[in-house]
Amino acid sequence: MFTTVQTWFQRAARPFSAERYDAVAHERLRLYTLVTIALLKLFNLFGGNWDIQWHVAVGRDSLWIPPHMLVVVAFITGSAVVLAAMAYETFLAQSGIKLDRVARVGAIRAPIAYFGIYFGYTAALLSGVFDELWHRAFGIDATLWSLPHLGIMASTMLVDVSLLVGITAAGRALKWPFHWRSPVFWGLMLAGAYTFEAVNFQMSEAFVEGYRAQGAGLMGILFPVLAGIMFPFPLLLSIKLSRRFWIAGLICAAAIALQYVGTGVAAAGFAWLKPESAIEQFVRNNPESTIAKAREFARLMGFTSLIGFQQAWIMWLSAVPLALVSLLEWWPWARKHVWVAAPIYSASLVVVSYVWFQQFAVLAAYHTPWTVVALGALVAAAGGLVFAQVGQWVATLAEA
Prior knowledge:
Layout: H1 2-12, H2 23-40, H3 42-57, H4 66-94, E1 103-105, E2 108-110, H5 112-138, H6 147-174, H7 183-203, H8 205-212, H9 222-230, H10 232-242, H11 247-273, H12 280-285, H13 290-301, H14 307-316, H15 319-327, H16 332-336, H17 341-357, H18 361-364, H19 370-399
Antiparallel strand pairs: 1-2
Helix pairs in contact: 1-2, 2-4, 2-6, 2-7, 3-4, 3-11, 4-5, 5-6, 6-7, 6-10, 6-19, 7-10, 7-11, 8-13, 9-17, 9-19, 10-19, 11-14, 11-15, 15-17, 17-19
């Protein structure tokens, strides 16, 4: 396998001078560069999985905790790869070669996806610095909805969207099929899975806030409403770029599988490092804090060991809705009106989640009436349609 990968890169990197420029080899190099960044982003995913468990079990005692370092590895290596690629693109452009699909920022010439990845990683690193200052000002109690955390999510989502756009553009320029043997397939699947994981991870704070409010009104189904509104953006983008509805099910399956792997990474990290908890006294002194409520909710849900299993359960809520979206592949009308995937996903997520919630005592105790569920499904479908239009708009720009 290593020999095969080495051969790919040797062929892709052939044009090291303007005199020997090969447009096809250059396009291959672009594709493999983007797929490499997508693979490096696994460090980001696993580091994030470990980080939330570290916050809940150990506390945020320092910026330099191991899960943070794992995330930083992803940010720095991804930035280094894309910077090298941008430098090479600029070198070719300055050599007088007319490059396809490049944007210009100052003296730099590169595909727009490269700029998106670079700015996304840069903003994520700056948000990490902001997060450190935030904790110094407000203490170790943390919410996923703090400004720096939301900044990190938005920044890494920019990287994911740029990967989707860039990989699709390179794949179409090469006329490579969307097939499991193609790097286009694996690149789009990984990038799509990252967007799904990001929305589920960040919006999981809704469960803590709903529990804090004892499920009053829409708070009892706040998570499926918010996820139903937000995820249609990357969902429709992935569907439009791949030109297949069934990528929805593939993204869901890949994200859940990676979540379990990430939970295993966290378990191995704890077993190896054996960190001492720095948060127990804080929780006892602050029973109404976010971290205390998160631990209490996880215990009532039965996820007392690794919080990563709760995160995986949250993703499973979308399994049926995304399976329904995948089935649209066999509906001719839907293939002409792709937007229909958004309300189907959003509304069914609210309904399926509510039904599943009844299996857990803490969630069933909210006694959310069907009128609220219907309202939540309507709100999610309407919001999902808006975000879906953004996804279709970005896909249209990418295709142009």
